[in-house]
Design a protein that fits this description.
This protein is of the alpha+beta class. It has two helices and 13 strands; from the N terminus they run βββββαββββαββββ. It has two domains: 13-101, 2-Layer Sandwich (Phosphorylase Kinase, domain 1); 108-154, no CATH class. It has helices at 53-67, 119-127, and strands at residues 13-17, 21-27, 30-35, 40-41, 44-45, 75-77, 97-101, 108-109, 112-115, 129-130, 133-134, 144-150, 153-154.
Length: 162
């Protein structure tokens, strides 16, 4: 199996490609989300992908949406090929696509941290805290945090999230 790192659904207009997902316009009210196998780390998208990664991400998302289906959300269908039969022409997209309502995006990245690493380590070195959360003195880089912390960030158009 080859990694799917780019998509081109000729029947739909591609709105944009994110770090991992491609977004297509179905009509003025709906979009098709496609989870690719692209890899992103530290705000860099790598050339090589991991085969099947997009399918796994889609299955995980679909599972969670089914578990919290009483909460209003953007999901219309986890089987968009039923409504968009031309998707059968793209077998590489199987189990990677969902049909969603087009809503106003809330640009927030939700980050749960269990270890003191990356930007959290830099913040800790400078201030002894991460996103306003005080941490014990003397911690080392990549050390397990006493308890997980939630550090939301605003999504940047490109580059590192704030």
């Amino acid at each position: 199996m080859e990694a799917v790192t780019s998509t081109n659904i000729k029947e739909l207009k591609k709105l944009f490609s994110g770090k991992v997902r491609d977004v297509y316009e179905v009509d003025e009210n709906r979009m098709l989300l496609v989870a690719t196998d692209r890899i992103s780390a530290f705000d860099v998208v790598f050339k090589e992908g991991i085969p099947g990664k997009g399918q796994v991400l889609t299955r995980i998302s679909n599972k969670w949406f089914s578990m919290i289906n009483q909460v209003p959300n953007h999901l219309i269908s986890t089987h968009p090929q039923e409504e968009l039969p031309f998707l059968a022409n793209y077998p590489e997209l199987e189990d990677r696509t969902v049909l969603v309502n087009r809503l106003k995006r809330l640009d927030v990245e939700c980050v749960a941290r269990g270890y003191l690493f990356g930007s959290a380590w830099r913040d800790y070195q400078a201030k002894g805290e991460v996103c306003g959360i005080k941490l014990p003195a003397g911690m080392k880089q990549a050390e397990c945090l006493p308890r997980p912390i939630f550090t939301p960030a605003t999504k940047a158009e490109s580059g590192h999230d704030e």
